[in-house]
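Comment thread on ticket #2218

A.B. wrote:
> Attaching the input chain for the structure job we discussed in standup.
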Amino acid sequence: MDHRCTRRVFLETLGATAGVTMGGSALLAQQLPAVPVPAAGTAPSGPPARQSAVSLIQGENRRKIICESLVAIEDQILPLLRTKKHVVIKPNVVSTQVQLAATHVDALHGILDFLAPRFKGPVVIAESSAGFTTEGFDNFGYQQVISEHKPLPISLVDLNEEGIYQTHTILNGDLHAVPVRLAARLLDPDAFIICACILKTHNVTVATLSLKNMALGAPLHSARRESNPWHDKRLYHGGVRQTLVDIMLTCQRLHPFWGVTVIDGFEGMEGNGPSGGTAVPSRIAISSIDYVAADRVGIEAMGIDPAWVGHLQFCAQAGLGQNDLSKIDIRGARIADVVRKYRMHDDIERELKWLGPMLEVPEKLG
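C.D. wrote:
> Ran it. Output below, let me know if you need it in another format.
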């Protein structure tokens, strides 16, 4: 089968029903009790004034729409890609056993189909799973991409076993500053970082897409060979408010190194995500060099009120990307034509308490 993916083929496929849309869809009504929202304040920094491009592609072949979503914004990608020496693809392997919870190998194939005619340097697929990453690589068939995409030099790296890191400071559950170890490959100025994530609901952050995948995929835990185990990801889970702030702090650190994000919504997860939910056949792919804008479009496609997703709001307020739909250039399908209302996690009411005043010690979730 010919998996080549070009801009000409993409434009021919898109046809008269595609085109570029500006603006956004109305937020869907949510079936939950109202949560008090704090009064708006004046922030020292805000979202960028520039417009961000996000592709939104719909189709019945996961590999094909992933590639086409990248082709749709290749004018954004190529100027950045040409300045880099190697590519790092960061999948989401939150579970090493449940395929629905992890980046599908066909999503990786779609990314590599795009890269092959445009980049000849080394490509590393690198992840820091909460468990043993290599088990996920084996269970989900990641090894097959190496042989299929020759002569592109591809390797698989377990970031926990590699153990090369830079330190970063976050807040723990007691709101004390603590150091964490972030994977050095995700802070490499010579790398073009590709986030390969999924549309999923979450047990702490309401939804998990690009920002969450990068922020919680970067902290490491001890390698199998180490006699004194440690797990820096656990430091992020001291309470909902703390988790949301720490995701933003970590995204601030990682942001200068990001290349492009690809959100695989071919089959998303609703309910008790990020690993115990059920499948939703959304049949979409979303790509952007602006991770905030991509997540905003993804949240809309899931039928979730974006105001609920605290780390998205915080990252936008910190100036890490565009969260205003009127300033997002959506290339491909219209949000209104692809939206599916995802069922929320059973803990959603407790997750949303961050929206109101902090009257008590935050509950620990996740």
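A.B. wrote:
> Thanks. Noting for the ticket: The chain has a mean pLDDT of 90.
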